[in-house]
Amino acid sequence: MASKFRRFTGYVFRTKWTLLSLIIINMIGFFIGIYYYLDELAVHPPYLWPIVMDCPVAVLLFSVICIFYLAKRKFHNLLVFFTSVYMIKYGLWTLTAIVLYWNFYMPGIDQTIAALNFILHTGLILEGITLSGKVSKNQYNAVIVLTLALVNDFFDYFMGTLQNMPHTYVGILMIESIIVSVALPVAVYLFRNQTRSEKSEGSKGRSKP
């Protein structure tokens, strides 16, 4: 299973047409996200915009990574680790928020846009999982990403950068977000350790006479 995942991620990030498609799709998602967050951006200073726009920032970073891979340019793996966790975290958060606040986000009988939003953020999670296959084995990066995720939670739930919504389920969302902020970087790090260990053992096995 792990070897198939490695082959899949390798194919995605070395294939030109796949990278171009991902760049286009995610840049479209970025601009749609900006439009969605216009009201939120209007009430926050520009230096807080990267914290306010969670999902748009995630897809923008993913697009940048795809551009680096397409151009065959080197970049720090911390960006890969952070973006992978960021995409999965806020994809999960958004799906949870949509379920809890379904009628708030999409009032009325037509729920098509809410359903589409649900599908798009499922795609965000899948992209983050795919990108996790390119995360390097580095415990310091895991600690940095975990810290940054918790800092984002602090701003959202204690400094007022969370998007405008009724307070009914904010406590649930805060608990979910903090748990994911801690568990996800650890899970990605351990998963990458496991897959790399399996790869190493497989190489040793093939080298035996």
Account of the 3D structure:
- This protein is mainly alpha-helical.
- The protein has one domain (2-198).
- It is 79% helix and 0% strand.
- The chain is built from ten helices and no strands.
- Helix 5 (54-71) packs antiparallel against helix 6 and helix 6 (77-100) runs antiparallel to helix 8.
- The longest helix is centred in the C-terminal third of the chain and has 38 residues, at 170-207.
Provide a short characterization of the protein structure.
With 209 residues, this protein is mostly helical.
Strand content: under 5%
What is the tally of helical segments? Answer: 10
Task: Supply the helix-strand structural class.
Answer: mainly alpha
The total domain count is 1
Topology:
Elements: H1 2-12, H2 16-36, H3 38-42, H4 49-52, H5 54-71, H6 77-100, H7 102-105, H8 112-132, H9 139-158, H10 170-207
Helix pairs in contact: 2-5, 5-6, 6-8, 6-9, 6-10, 9-10
